[in-house]
Structures are given as C-alpha cells and as structure tokens.
Amino acid sequence: MKKRMIAAIGLACLTALAACNNEDGAKDDTEVIATVNGTSITEAEFVEELKAQGGSNILSNMVQRRVLDEAIETVEISEEEIEAELEVFRTEFQTNFGTENDEDILEVLKTEYQLEFESMDEFVDEYVLPPLALKKLGSEGVEVTDENVQTYYDENTDEFIELEASHILVEDEAAAQAVLDRLEAGEDFAALAEELSTDPGSAANGGDLGAFKKGAMVEPFFNAAVALEVGEISEPVESQYGFHVIKLNKRTEQAFEDVQEEIREKLVQEQSKTQEQILAELMKEADIEIKDEQFSDLFKTETPAAEGETPATEGDAPATETETETEVETENE
C-alpha cells in the first residue's frame, strides 16, 4: 500500500507541475521575484536555473501527463468504478493516518505531502481517473469466458479454502515426535504449545494461528494443513523454521458463485498490458515536438525495446493496485 500511495502522490505531482507551467506562462520573464543585497533575480533567471537543475525530468513528466490526459478522455469510466476505487483509498488512509472523512484525507495530503486539493472531486481527476483509464486501456481486447473462470476454479481449489489451525514449532524432528508422543498420551495441544513451541507469535495463544489462505503460509505448512481433516493432527512437517506439529481447527471452502467475479478480474489482469506498457505505447504514438534545443534529445535517447519487452519510460507512472501475499510462515517467526 505504501508504494501505491507514493506512486499516487507522484502522479499528482505531475499535474501540479503542469499547473505551475500554465500559471508561469502568463508572467513577464523580466519580473523580479527576489532581491539579494539590492541585486535582482528575475523570472527568466529562475526558470533557466530550474531547467538546468531538473528541467528534463520536469518536462518529461509534463509531457507524459499531457499524453495521459488525452488518453483519459477516450475511456468511459462509470461513477460506480470511481467510487469503488475511491473507497479503497479511503480505507488505506484510515488505516495509515486514522482519517475519518474526506476532509481529513485532504488535510493529510496537504500536511504530509504538500499537495493541496480543494475537493475530493479534484483529487479524483488527478489520482483516481488516470490509473482506471490505463487499466481499461490495458484490458482492451481481453476476453475471459465463463468456461475460463470455471476451469480456473476447478484447477485451483486450494486458493478458495480458508483454514484455521494451531501448531507447535520445535527445532528438530525428534522433538516433534516427542510432542506427538505426549499428544497421543492425552496431553492438551494448547498446553503443549505454550510449553514447547518456539514460535513467539502463537505459543502464548496455545499455538493458534487464526485464519489463513494459500500464500499466507510457507508451502510445506499449507500443503500439510489443507490435507488434514478438522480436528486431525499432522505428522512432523519440516519448513525453514523447523518442524511443525499442526492441528486443523476449521476449514471453509468458498463456493464458485462467491468468487467467480474475483477470478474473472484476476484472469483479465493477467492477460492485460501493464500500465507502464500502455503509457509507453501512448508516448510512442504521440506527436511530440520539443522546441527548446536544450531538451531536443529528451525523447530520442530511449533504446527500442526488443519484441515482447516493455519500453522504459521516464518519470512516475500511475500506481497499480497490487496485493502482496506474505510468504513467511508467520510475521513473528
């Protein structure tokens, strides 16, 4: 989420730069903007210094934003799509900054990122619409059938199973076998976890790991847990953390009807072009003419990408919404 937020702020900065450019265009370049011991610094001198220090990056960002603005106008985006994306952002800001309403979000953008938006509508124009437009452009021509969705569900059933389990983590197989021996003798699983488990994140809770799905635990652990019946205890399971004795407490399988749209979206995303690819294509198709000789080679220095590769683009690209799956057995281990 942090990367997503930073990229979003970067995108907003592109717009801010463009706005600054438009405002400055009306100024007289001989206007004095500061004096030092009676010596003037003019608007023209200031602009030349900006060009020398970071002009290529600023111009590149402004050109990309102009190209992106034109592309947005060609894409139909519904109010429902906008609201859904905005709701994700509200949730993220509430989690990270404790915001309670849109006014709080605007204040955080101002105080934390030095970005001012007069309203959420303005924010939507600058942040929500660009990634949505690129997402739609990237999925043009992609077709996912009902059969594709059903096949994915049938072939990846483990993805749609939620497990609740407890475990006892020990150093070696002999210690794990000793745990099993004590369990077979009638000792309580939770009590043994508190006594013996080396997992500080779950030992105090009797080894309880709560609910998890595929991808949240290391593969050997999940594969062993998903094969158990509710109430069953596993043989010793080895992972990079040591040896686990696992008890399955609950198993919930999601019905196809409940996840079919999630699967469809996943399949569309997998077949779609990335936002970086789309932006690179838009830049390639755009008629860009640089009038200032200082930046005449700005869009001529890129090496053409090999077939199947994505051309590199300068500047920030709009954020993509990605979910990062935890690949360690537990955060506390």
Automatic annotation (TrEMBL):
<dbReference type="InterPro" id="IPR023059">
    <property type="entry name" value="Foldase_PrsA"/>
</dbReference>
<dbReference type="InterPro" id="IPR023058">
    <property type="entry name" value="PPIase_PpiC_CS"/>
</dbReference>
<dbReference type="InterPro" id="IPR000297">
    <property type="entry name" value="PPIase_PpiC"/>
</dbReference>
<comment type="function">
    <text>Plays a major role in protein secretion by helping the post-translocational extracellular folding of several secreted proteins.</text>
</comment>
<keyword id="KW-0732">Signal</keyword>
<dbReference type="GO" id="GO:0005886">
    <property type="term" value="C:plasma membrane"/>
</dbReference>
<dbReference type="GO" id="GO:0006457">
    <property type="term" value="P:protein folding"/>
</dbReference>
<protein>
    <recommendedName>
        <fullName>Foldase protein PrsA</fullName>
        <ecNumber>5.2.1.8</ecNumber>
    </recommendedName>
</protein>
<feature type="signal peptide">
    <location>
        <begin position="1"/>
        <end position="18"/>
    </location>
</feature>
<dbReference type="InterPro" id="IPR046357">
    <property type="entry name" value="PPIase_dom_sf"/>
</dbReference>
<feature type="domain" description="PpiC">
    <location>
        <begin position="160"/>
        <end position="250"/>
    </location>
</feature>
<dbReference type="InterPro" id="IPR027304">
    <property type="entry name" value="Trigger_fact/SurA_dom_sf"/>
</dbReference>
<keyword id="KW-0413">Isomerase</keyword>
<dbReference type="InterPro" id="IPR050245">
    <property type="entry name" value="PrsA_foldase"/>
</dbReference>
<feature type="region of interest" description="Disordered">
    <location>
        <begin position="297"/>
        <end position="333"/>
    </location>
</feature>
<feature type="compositionally biased region" description="Acidic residues">
    <location>
        <begin position="322"/>
        <end position="333"/>
    </location>
</feature>
<comment type="similarity">
    <text>Belongs to the PrsA family.</text>
</comment>
<keyword id="KW-0564">Palmitate</keyword>
<dbReference type="Pfam" id="PF00639">
    <property type="entry name" value="Rotamase"/>
</dbReference>
<keyword id="KW-0472">Membrane</keyword>
<keyword id="KW-0697">Rotamase</keyword>
<keyword id="KW-0449">Lipoprotein</keyword>
<feature type="compositionally biased region" description="Low complexity">
    <location>
        <begin position="309"/>
        <end position="321"/>
    </location>
</feature>
<dbReference type="GO" id="GO:0003755">
    <property type="term" value="F:peptidyl-prolyl cis-trans isomerase activity"/>
</dbReference>
<keyword id="KW-1003">Cell membrane</keyword>
